[in-house]
Design brief:
34% of the residues are buried. This protein has seven helices and no strands. The model is unreliable at 1-17, 52-67, 78-91 and 216-227 (pLDDT under 50). It is mainly alpha-helical and 279 residues long.
């Protein structure tokens, strides 16, 4: 049994952290480590989160294996227990199924607020990091272009710098895109939870657009600086506000992704005009 449990534990530890939800690093950092630093920090933060989640899954698997073996006396029971323990230990986060099965409304709403808050924070940090990297790369490209035009660096040097800048921006755009894809599913879950809560209370479903920056529903509220309440139920109203903050953060992140892609297009055109190179 010990061999079985430890085998499952080892497999989970090996599997954890092998892949990044941000995709692979494609930037060879030689000239502009300061520009890549915000992206490197994002990757480091992700690795830390993966390590914590993986450790929880591994511990849960090992304890599950012990319980499974004690209950059945068989290796198969240990494996089944390990699988269950891994789910409990590593995947104890928010989910619509978990939301619906939680009988305590206060716990449900607290879990919802915490989950939305974590996702908003992730998007805001990613957006700020991407913006910082983009601005740094934009300044670096302007300098490299001027240096090449004034014969301070060679054509080969300019091309190397251009490629590093381009890959840094492309990697940044890929990270934002991967986060946005992940948030699409989260958005569905949060909206479904809001609708489900309204149904339980036999109340109309609040419209998060009331609180969304730039939406038609939120225009004309600058005098009071308070959005119109989407529901007379304070708990539903709070959920709608939280959902709107999620939508606002995602919108900002998507705009930064567009700005990053636009910068790539500008650099490609400039590189082509100067040297006939570019993607």
């Amino acid at each position: 049994m010990r061999k079985t449990a430890f085998a499952v534990l080892a497999a989970l530890l090996l599997a954890n952290g092998c892949t990044s939800k941000y995709g692979s690093q494609i930037t060879d950092v030689n000239h502009y480590p300061n520009c890549y630093a915000p992206i490197a920090e994002l990757r480091a933060d992700e690795k830390n989160v993966q390590t914590g989640t993986g450790a929880g899954a591994a511990i849960g698997a090992f304890m599950g294996a012990l319980v499974g073996y004690a209950a059945t006396g068989k290796a198969s029971g240990a494996v089944a227990g390990a699988a269950t323990g891994a789910v409990v230990g590593g995947l104890a986060g928010y989910g619509i199924a978990k939301h619906k099965t939680e009988s305590d409304a206060k716990v449900r709403l607290a879990n919802y607020a915490e989950a939305v808050g974590q996702d908003v924070n992730q998007m805001d940090v990613a957006t700020a990091s991407a913006s910082k990297a983009r601005q740094c790369y934009e300044a670096a490209f302007d300098t490299a272009r001027a240096d090449f035009k004034n014969n301070r660096i060679s054509a080969a040097e300019f091309e190397a710098r251009y490629k590093e800048i381009r890959n840094g921006l492309l990697e940044t755009a890929n990270i934002l895109d991967n986060i946005s894809i992940n948030m699409t599913e989260k958005d569905k879950e949060y909206r479904e939870a809001l609708a489900w809560e309204a149904q339980q209370r036999e109340m109309p479903v609040p419209d998060p657009a009331v609180y969304t920056v730039g939406s038609s529903a939120s225009k004309g509220k600058s005098k009071t600086k308070q959005p119109v309440k989407a529901s007379s139920d304070p708990e539903l109203d709070a959920m709608a506000r939280q959902n709107a903050s999620f939508i606002n953060s995602r919108s900002s992140m998507d705009k930064e992704k567009e700005a990053t892609q636009a910068a790539i297009d500008v650099f490609d055109q400039n590189a082509h005009d100067l040297m006939g190179i570019g993607a």
